[in-house]
């Protein structure tokens, strides 16, 4: 997320154009979520649904790379990308848990973390805090989980070849979940600083 200091929301090399290449990529990822739900629950194509989910998760880095590559970083994109990550993660967790491909404790721990992050984000925004840049450890945790859930979805069955995906899923899943919770704890200090700075900026604007 961006860093709105005193002055306009967009600063430096950030662009005010909403229709940028990275934003389009993020929008396409969001539009593919209904297709994933249809493949899993409508067409009952579990493997294809898992492959699509894996593609959406793995390509999470693409929009950020394109934004830097083409100098199209935008305040809107810095908000849209984490929101897309949250929506995709919630969809994946609920859907994969619904078909019984992951145990409830794992899905519950993932969901609880996502709910806490979303609630904290909304609370900070309502209190006037500055937006906080996404931490690498958080992105790494999200990546691990977005590899784990489609892998465990593919592994859901009794075929021998599915054992590989079970090992892959749990390897990424445990590490990803730990990193996700570490990231949540790591946001405490930046959140306090963002709240102080946001209030200070509002105070100076009120006095001027």
At the fold tier of CATH, the topology name is Four Helix Bundle (Hemerythrin (Met), subunit A)
CATH class: Mainly Alpha
* Low-confidence parts: 1-14
Summed up, the helix count is 8
Query: Measured on Cα atoms, how large is the radius of gyration?
Result: 19 Å
Q: Tell me the helix content.
A: over 70%
Our estimate of the beta-strand percent is under 5%
What's the CATH architecture?
Up-down Bundle
| Shape type | globular
Provide a descriptive summary of the structure in words.
One of its GO terms (cellular component) is membrane. GO terms for molecular function: CDP-diacylglycerol-glycerol-3-phosphate 3-phosphatidyltransferase activity. Keywords: Lipid biosynthesis, Lipid metabolism, Membrane, Phospholipid biosynthesis, Phospholipid metabolism, Transferase, Transmembrane, Transmembrane helix. Belongs to the CDP-alcohol phosphatidyltransferase class-I family. It is a multi-pass membrane protein. This protein has 208 residues and is mainly alpha-helical. It has one domain: CDP-alcohol phosphotransferase transmembrane (TM) domain (Four Helix Bundle (Hemerythrin (Met), subunit A)), CATH 1.20.120.1760. It has 8 helices and no strands. Helix 1 runs antiparallel to helix 2 and helix 4 runs antiparallel to helix 5. It is globular and about 70 Å long. The two termini are 27 Å apart. 32% of the residues are buried. The N terminus is likely disordered.
